[in-house]
Amino acid sequence: DVQLVESGGGSVQIGGSLTLACAASRGFDDADAEWGWFRQAPGKGRERVATTYSRGGTILYADSVKGRFTISRDNAKNTLYLQLNSLKTEDTAMYYCSKGADRGQGTQVTVS
């Protein structure tokens, strides 16, 4: 299994920005991999916010974050990123990165 370690969460004011990072232990060059970020707030279901595919470069965003969040990757660093801009209180959640069915331990984002 791949090890995924998220970082970059924190507390930020409404309208602020954060950059989340996810360091992967291996597999960043898997041709058919699906990488992504999802979030979960207390008492709410899991929401997939962004997905990118190694093959073809397709990127997908949830409607709730489209135009505000950007997913990217640095292959040389084996790191996946999520840039969060124009943050809203409803963006408060634990954010997890994923590779296929594997996920990290999460990083908390709090917007107030």
How do the helices and strands line up, and which of them pair or pack?
Layout: E1 4-7, E2 10-12, E3 18-24, E4 34-40, E5 46-53, E6 59-61, E7 69-74, E8 79-84, E9 93-99, E10 102-103, E11 107-111
Parallel strand pairs: 2-11
Antiparallel strand pairs: 1-3, 3-8, 4-5, 4-9, 5-6, 7-8, 9-10, 9-11
Features:
mainly beta, globular
Query: What is the radius of gyration?
Result: 13 Å
Give the class from helix and strand content and strand pairing.
mainly beta
Largest sheet data: 7 strands, mixed
How many DSSP H or I helices?
0
Overall strand count: 11
The helix-strand sequence is EEEEEEEEEEE
Instruction: Give the helix proportion (percent range).
Output: under 10%
Q: What ranges have pLDDT less than 50 throughout 5 or more consecutive residues?
A: none
Q: End-to-end span in angstroms?
A: 36 Å
Task: Kindly estimate the percentage of residues that lie in beta strands according to DSSP.
Answer: over 45%
Oligomeric organization of the protein chains: single chain
Shape: globular
Q: What's the overall average pLDDT, rounded?
A: 94
Could you give a short description of this structure?
This protein has 112 residues and is mainly β. It contains no helices and 11 strands.
Characterise this structure.
- This protein has about 110 residues and is mainly beta.
- It contains no helices and 11 strands.
- The chain has strands at about 5, 10, 20-25, 35-40, 45-55, 60, 70-75, 80-85, 95-100, 100-105, 105-110.
- Strands 2, 4, 5, 6, 9, 10 and 11 form a 7-stranded mixed beta sheet that branches. A 4-stranded antiparallel beta sheet has the order 1-3-8-7, with no helix packed on it.
- Strand 4 (about 35-40) and strand 5 form a beta hairpin.
- It is globular and about 40 Å long.
- The mean pLDDT is about 95.
